[in-house]
Design goal:
The protein is mostly beta strands and 292 residues long. The chain is built from two helices and 24 strands.
Amino acid sequence: MRPVKRQLAAAALGLLVAAKVAACGGDDRAAEPAAPQPADDEASLTHIHGLGVGPDDGTLYVATHSGLFKAADGEQQLHRIGDSEQDIMGFSVISADRFIGSGHPAPNDTSEPPNLGLIESRDGGQSWKNMSLLGDADFHVLKSEGARVYGFDGTEGRLLVSDDGGKRWTQRAPPAAMFDLAIDPDSAGRVVASTERGVFSSADAGKSWRPLRDDTAGLLAWPAAGRLYLVDGQGQVQRSADGGRRWRPVGAIGGQPSAFIAADTELYAALADGTVKRSTDGGARWTVRATP
């Protein structure tokens, strides 16, 4: 790779790392002051960790540093769900009312350990309970397809894989610290990982890895065969038609990304300021879907 191209890739990676660190507030929660979170929901929404879309009604769900929010289809204003102000890190919508996540308890909650492991809601985010790994894992990346769940545990730098929806786990060795992971929509055992060393693929559910690119990384979305998307730390969106070997630019979201997903034919990206944007044309043009 030419030096200039490598420098640009390093700059984009640096922005992505900075955005991820700022979003999670660091890994050592024990060092954080035990002060309450701001009561202002707008302040809460500047720390977005994850996005999801209701499969039945198009509701947008936004997982943040201090709780879960939603905006109904056709609405832009986000509203808090329930009373919990827990930090929801990894987040995935499984079905209309069932979500999974990870993260940390609310600052004033001393009944739970600092790391919540895998948590689950079966009432649309109104309440949450632990499924597994309580006190033992903090999933910064959490992706699911059917009963298969992949989680990158930021506390130990390990990749965990579950084949029963998150009850039991098998440990895998990731190629490097992960920013994101995308599951092939045609095969839950094939994944692409974006890491601090570039982009890698696995055809055996993370047992082995093959490097694809060392000059790019970012957040990933894989809605259909031949349509793997990546948004880098500068907000530039790229598309790969061959599972991550070759990429071409398609558009830009207009800022640093903090979360990125696909829902059917649409793409959604959260910016560092709490704005959520949507693209209906494969990432070429973006409009505001929700605001703090």
